[in-house]
Amino acid sequence: MMDSTLPLLVKGYGWLPDRRRRAGGRPVHTRLAGRRAIALHGTQAVRWFYDEENVVRQDALPGPLLDTLFGRGAVHTLDGESHRVRKSMFMTELKDTGGLRDLADRLGREWDPAAAEWAERERVVLFDEASEVITRAVCGWAGVALPEGPGGARQMADDLIAMVDGFATAGPRHLRARRARARQEARIAELVNAEREQAKAATGSHDVKTVTAFAAVAHHRDADGTLLDPHTAAVEVLNVVRPTVAVTWYVTFAAHALHRWPEQRGQLAAGNAAQVLAFAQEVRRFYPFAPFVAGLATDHARWEGQEVPAGTMVLLDLYGQNHDPALFPDPYTFDPGRFLDREPGRDELVPQGGGDPATGHRCPGEDVTLTVLATLAPRLARLEYDVPEQDLTIALHRMPTRPRSGFVLANVRKNTQGR
Known about the structure:
It is globular and about 60 Å long. The protein has one domain (5-413): CATH 1.10.630.10. Helix 14 (273-286) crosses helix 16 (366-382). The strands form three sheets. The chain has a five-stranded mixed beta sheet, sandwiched between helices. Strands 4-10-9 form a three-stranded antiparallel beta sheet. By secondary structure, it is an alpha+beta fold. It has helices spanning 5-11, 15-22, 43-49, 63-70, 80-97, 100-118, 126-142, 152-165, 172-203, 213-218, 230-245, 248-260, 264-270, 273-286, 319-322, 366-382, and strands spanning 28-32, 35-40, 55-56, 123-125, 292-297, 302-303, 306-307, 313-317, 384-386, 408-413.
């Protein structure tokens, strides 16, 4: 069986859907990075994949992915009780310290003056500007101090973007991602130590009431009852803010959608909650983000009656499922209306994975993603600007992809339509 690592890197998002078509829709059997692999698709596969009786994450994520996107020791690498206790921190403790309404308010307070400042410039690159807006908002919301100095927010935004941008490639982007992660892990580990020392000096204990997501991570106790070591705590702090800043990709895709389908602008600008949510969901479905997720088969995994050998890499097709006509008719038509009549099923729309976020490995930040999009997309729709000639190609061989130009706005005008 030939190894598909190179074809994956060459074809990107199209690799797995293409292999599925050639396999007649059956599971794809291949090898990746020298390991036997099977790729599955569909809602039943989602439920099967997120059952720890079938698939586990420990040792499933390759080192290059941990050194860029997730970090060593991250919650994504855990299983069983260790995973459930760590995941509870993201599902309950962190959200108790700062509600989504607070995050939305902070996003608005950062976006509005930034957009006014864009009007003073001839051109701005939306991807770059949105990443800084979101970085300022989420770091303030989470209680994560920005690097010192006037360029601190820009440096933090660039590092968080680099971690995402370099995870699925080799060469300069990957090296930038590694350096960015190492720099921020070291800085935040120092902040964790300082937080713990201050808390202990004030209360005599590390078990203190936490009021920010950063403090909740710093004082979290794992399944064995011990505090996270400073490095792991820094990793998990980054796993709060990094995925939020990654919504920059979706904000840029939202601008792309408004440019291609300008009829969407009016309804989105009006701010009707149902229309805004439907638009956000369709951006997540239509545009490419994660191609698939992976785990390792347990020693008793069976798919549709067939044994899956222990240690086999199991891939769950995300991009292909989000464009499956059996689930989403006319899948290559951008149509927010498909989400007006019904909420997507839990295991149907899977841009950030599937399963139960409370008990499984599904991303716990989907409501954060929707909050960011629902806050910024209407503001983008109300903003007046020109779209100069530029390369808006979205190359499917690049992972993660985005419009090549980053979406350039020219002649931004101050809002005239209110909020």
